[in-house]
Description:
single chain; 560 residues; alpha+beta; five-stranded mixed β-sheet; three-stranded antiparallel β-sheet; 17 helices; transport; oxidoreductase activity, acting on NAD(P)H; membrane
Amino acid sequence: MSLEKPSRDTALDVGVTEDGLDYDALADLLxxxxxxxxxxxxxxxxxxxxxxxxxxxxxxxxxxxxxxCACVTAQEYDDRYESIYHLRxxxxxxxxxxxxVPSPKDDPHNESAARVYDTADWHEREAYDLVGIDYDDxxxxxxxxxxxxxxxxxxxxxxxxDQPQIVSLREHANPLQDDQRSExxxxxxxxxxxxHHPATHGVxxxxxxxxxxxxxxxxxxxxxxxRCEEQMCxxxxxxxxxxPYPDRWDYISAxxxxxxxxxxxxxxxxxxxxxxxxxxxxxxxxxxxRIASHELALATFALDVFGDFTAVFQYGIRDREIVQNLLxxxxxxxxxxxYLRLGGVAWDLPEPxxxxxxxxxxxxxxxxxxxxxxxxxxTGNEIFQMRCVDTGVLSPEQVKQYGATGPxxxxxxxxxxxxxxxPYGYYDELDWNVVTEQGGDNFSRVLVRLREVEESxxxxxxxxxxxEQWPEDDREIQANVPRTLRPDPDREIYRSVxxxxxxxxxxxxxxxTDKPARFKIRSPCFSNLQTLPEMSQGEYIPDMxxxxxxxxxxxxxxxx
Length: 560
């Protein structure tokens, strides 16, 4: 079966048995550090002291193989604050563990994990910004989504949303710090790229320090498109009011992929079984969204590199529009689909079914020729190769340190795809391959996306074959879900899907009501964007623009 994952070195798999993780063995490994244990839906959680975070996480990373800090969730209870580090393994993401760090109500703080996992840097800054937890020994603890002058923390219980805010314009601030100057040549130049710039793919501000013509220091400044998505989801009901929001995270093409991330978490939280027929429709439509997303990523990336709008960009958009037509026929919308429902999908395939299947097959039949055109125009172009080969290099070790996923990780040879490694939907019943490239550069990331379009087409074709033959009396599109959904109180879950950009995860904590007590979004773009300084150090501004484009970020998902 092509979905079989290559064998890996399991020397670090402490506590792994044939049935999965042995949490007792992991607790023995940590010894007295474990104060208590909690049973979350996806994984067991170990409660530890606030001043032992680095020691515990280092042990789990080095001795038990938990090399992926997927997400950090922060929240406030009536009697405490809490940080949760969601740990997984790139080798096998079904091996999960939550590290829970409570801290006192009057002085919320715990030791930073950023010294162990680089990706925890931004995650903890967000937790500090929105919830108000301090992280001791953090390399740069300051706000990340809101202005530095903001008063209060919007996700804390005592936040006064009516308090007036003053955001000062620091027009005379000197951005050049001593640690940004070259020891050999102190003549550095500070350059603002964005936030309104066609190469930043949204309102991204890149603070760049040049030493001559090379980048000496770079910092992505995000938060210009923060829309309080988590707060809005916490105010909506599970059954009806949350599902329209995910389309607006990655608002370009990945709507159904986003909806599936929420659906998977909520369905597992409430023990909802999705009918097999609906799973096939979900899988087919999700791969259509993946193709649309990758086609747009290629088009905009070529625009960044070539600056050619009339040819290369339009070729990518031409193919994407056909997929958008198919999605519009299915969902009634071109971007904000709102098609998935908890327990299934909103409605069946459009009638006449044979005509819809014919449209899909026509698209799939034309796709190989169109991809060949793209390769001739883009990947076979000498200028494109000079701009992309050996620029923006990201090593597999850096990928894992920053929690990068999706084509960014697979372009560096990290063989990680949740569709295969943590199966959901109908993926494990189909024949397809996970695509990786070993170069780790901008060129490799483009190749991964183009090859993934081919694999998505294979998946869609198999789904169409199944749907064509499905008995009419057995076309069940939704499970029997209560009109008002109230998961049991104090249930917690972290679930994720393989979005177009990488691992899109959702953490939900229920309190017995029809609304989540905590709703946390793990954006793949958020973690992937952290790698930009590593990719750009010592390179030129045009190389950085290419590297940023190769990450394929959408600021609506970064900021949420």
